Amino acid sequence: MPMMSIAETWAKKVHNPLHTSYTSQLTVFGRATEKVESLIGAILSPSTPFVVPEDPEVTRQMLVDLANHARTLDRQLSLARGTLVSEDTFHPNRPFPQTTSTTPSPNSEAEAEDSEDSLDTITTDFQKLLITHNQRHYGRSSDFVFLQYAFEAGRIPRMLQPLTGTVFASFRRPEFWHRLPFQRICDTPDPGYPLVFPDPDLLQDLIRIYFSTINCILPLLHRPTFERSVAAGLHFHDRPFAFTVLAVCAIASRQSDDPRNLYDGTDSCHSLGWKWFQQIPLVQLKFTDQPTLYDVQSCILTVLFLRMTSTPDSVWILTGVGIRYAQEMGAHRKKPKGHKRTIEDELWNRAFWILLVTDFSTSIAWGRPSIVSPDNYDADLPADCDDEYWEHSEFQQPEGTPSVISCFRTYCKLMEIAGSVQRTLYGIGKSPSSVPGSQAQTEAVLELDSALNQFVNDIPSHLKWDKPQSNFLFYWQSCILNSMVHWVRIRVHRPFILRAIHSSSSDSDTDNGIPSQTICRTAARSMVLIAEALHARRLSEGRKTSIEMAPSLISPLLIASLVFLVIRKEMEYVDRCMALVKWYEPRYQSAGRIVDSLNAIIAIVQNSDERVDQFPQVAQQPIPSENQVFPVPDQQQSTFDWSYLQPQPQSQPPLATQDTIWPASSFYGSNGDGHSQENWDSFMAMLDGQGMDLGFQ
């Protein structure tokens, strides 16, 4: 570049100072990078001597820009080497590198190799954003990989890529990403250390909250026997039961406004429950004694508490430990003919099914194999009988009275379908149906989709979404159950939506004759409408908060957001998802992490597409007030055609008036196996299980 052009460039820059916001940084970064590279080229030119500008201010600006450029490169190099470590993360030794499985047939080897190369490319680029030493495996079905799709869909220009890590860091609000001082886990406690319980009145209140907001959705405990045991003071003498009681208190504390649940010395709502939970050993391994029912219940409650915190990493492992406990006691087997059911039998059965559905949902969300498969358990579903009828009617629900537990029984069947989705579509390549784009995979998708349709038809009438429900608990259960149906349906069609976007026909969203993109958009949109309808009813009935609904809504809303970000249509639904998730930020760190991460992705892809003007509004949305009413239809209006192949009903809210199809990269054709990913400050470990997601709590 001629010297005059460089001087003019920097002179103009001197008289037009840069804005300080990240929006402005993103806007000018590409141009600034080009100018610096031109300057470097001029200085190092072997043919044209470089002439220093006469204006000292221009010269100074050149030096400042060169210094800033050098600093940026140094930071990016440090990130790539993994030397920048967040102060709130642990640094265990890295596991052995993951190996990639071979594909089942010669015809698919080349395709699989290309897919894995494509996934390797984006994985390498994406890892530049990650800043911890931890490394975990996330497979093809995982939300981590789906987040990568959303990121890659933005087609980030090369000149902007060095700044993406800075942008992600700028959105990380410390209160959601740091492991806070009170978030300590009891690993190896002294078996004789004294336990501290809530005051008697607070203990009773927390037990009431637990059974009215948690156990009615995930029915682990039998309320009459649990309350009798507490009243008798069993928790003062039986340590395993004491840990179960403390775990109940810890979980219920998140729904309580009593300041006595806060950790001593802090007023942060993120500390709710930790003063009770810290006393519970993370894993009570007993290699000589057989596990007790209380051991298993405590393990499950630990999973429920940790999955919505900044320390969810152990949840997947704890679920496996709990399953081994249950298998050791035979809870996975059907009782022999003629066996008379007891309360303890039923509690073991409930515990096993909770562990089973947790394993299924967690495994598909993280892209890891389940510890249990259908051919090694035959336990009956939990009895279709509510707690109050266990002791005096031999587990017989009164005729004509819908049971509260019927929702969980139905959910168990749904998660068995989810487990089949994981094994059939997201295997490591040994099954024909897991080969990307194969006829076997197409047939498997159609079969699984048909199974979901049949499942919807079989949902108990009081839980169907297209029927008005005056009972708020049944309405809430219906919202959760139907939202999770869409969650599973997206998992079924996800292998095809990326291939459809990459289709040469810009006006077609089909792949192998299946309109998977439309199906996923409809499912994602429906999850948003269900969540909005639930919030609207909650507020219209004068209920104070929706905090207890967080675990059952956050994961579907996250998946819905990623669908819209990947497909690049109806992007206003992403804003609506984040507005809902913001409700839960005051008490759930995982909610804040999701909002921060989605905001960062939106900022990057919008600015890479020169849409800077939209960035500030998205990044700075206020937390909704309790008086906010969402403009959504009622329950019946929020339904949609389950065939999802027909035009949307007129009762749906108006859709986006203009569909924008953003350019797709070759990554949309990638269907390679999962790869080991550095753990992004436990964010992806928290996806769906909160990350984790049961979809329930």
From TrEMBL:
Pfam families assigned to the protein according to its UniProt record, in alphabetical order: Fungal_trans
Residues annotated as domain Xylanolytic transcriptional activator regulatory: 315-388
Listed SMART domains: Fungal_trans
Skewed-composition ranges (Low complexity): 96-109
Region annotated Disordered, chain positions: 88-118
Keywords: Nucleus
Protein name: Gypsy retrotransposon integrase-like protein 1
Gene label: GIN1_22
